[in-house]
Design brief:
The chain has 132 residues and is mainly α. The protein contains five helices and no strands. The protein has helices spanning 11-29, 38-53, 59-82, 96-116, 122-131.
Length: 132
């Protein structure tokens, strides 16, 4: 690995996939209930988990984990839409699919900003203090 190079690793992707599976199971079980924070947590999980284990990333490099989380949330949203599992009420947007896309984008942006931040935020500090 080149000095200064960064990598995501497997664990953050496993965490994002597990959260996506949990969101999918809940949405399939109760399709008329909207789990508003499902796409937000899925999209933000990869950059947040990477930040727990690593120092801050430069802005351009931090786009990779954020985009990866957004991609996992987008694939999950499409799968749930095709399965007709997003029929619940919405807060913003015209339907639950649009709302999930908006919330996933917010989650990816939150994860990106957290990964860039020099000082760890409250959530990241809580996890790193527990591990030491």
């Amino acid at each position: 690995m080149v000095d200064g190079a960064r990598r995501i690793g497997v664990r953050p992707v496993v965490v994002a996939s597990a959260l996506a599976m949990l969101w999918s199971v809940l949405a399939m079980w109760h399709p008329t209930i909207t789990y508003h924070f499902g796409p937000t947590l899925v999209a933000a999980s990869i950059p947040l988990f990477v930040r727990i284990r690593d120092r801050p990333w430069p802005s351009r490099l931090a786009l990779l984990p954020a985009t990866s989380g957004l991609l996992v949330a987008a694939v999950t949203t499409v799968a749930l839409t095709l399965a007709d599992a997003l029929r619940g009420p919405v807060i913003v947007g015209g339907n639950a699919t649009v709302e999930a896309a908006l919330f996933a984008t917010v989650g990816a942006a939150w994860g990106w900003s957290t990964l860039r931040r020099a000082r760890q935020g409250l959530i990241v500090r809580a996890f790193t203090e527990r591990e030491t």
